[in-house]
Amino acid sequence: MTKSTWAIDPTHSEIGFKVKHMMFTNVSGKFNDFKASIENEDDNFEISKINFSADVSSVDTNNADRDNHLRSNDFFDVDTFPKISFTSTKITKINDGLFQINGDLTIKNVTKSIALETEYSGLMEDPWGNTKIGLSITGKIDRKEFGLTWNSTLETGGVLVGEEIKLNSEIQFIKQ
Question: What is the pTM of this model?
């Protein structure tokens, strides 16, 4: 068996999310500063160990005021909790190219087990001879479970920020 190590290709990866705003539209965001790695044997994705972290201060929703609010104590409290992390605990093949990655997500020092649906591209070689894999990852979390509880009630009923966060990431890894 040959151990393989993979590093994220940040120029071809995006770590994103969506949340309901005012109960009727989605606001999208992403993290611009992140790291991830995969370790496995014989390039077998099913027996991989995946580690991920994001610098929360790099949150980007394309609105400086909103981003600063997300960095504040009302939400992420980046001065106290500067990182979000994820470590896989199990990868299960659903069918060809589709997997479920189970793991532990930590936000604001709260760790919860989550499941992520993952499309796996298989091994590919880029034009420069690098071996790569591509992952398209989706999932959902309840932000309140991680201590992200700030909200505002609307005069018309409902709340300003939805509780469900939809995770959506497109990631390329390069074999080291």
Answer: 0.92
Q: What's residue 111's pLDDT?
A: 98
Rounded-to-5 percentages of helix, strand, coil across the chain: 10, 60, 30
Residue whose entry in the numeric block shows the structure tokens 């705003």: 21
Instruction: Please calculate the CA angle 28-133-62 and round it to the nearest 5 degrees.
Output: 15
List pLDDT tens digits, range 146-164. Answer: 997 866 776 777 656 778 8
- CATH numbers and ranges of domains, the chain: 3-25+32-175 (2.40.128.110)
Angle at 55 between CA 172 and CA 84, to 5 degrees: 85
Helix intervals (H) in the chain: 64-71
Provide the token pair at 164. 């469900």
Q: Is the confidence at residue 113, as pLDDT, over 80?
A: yes
Cα-based angle 20, 21, 24 (whole degrees, multiple of 5): 75
Half-sphere exposure of 149 (CA within 13 A, CB side): 4
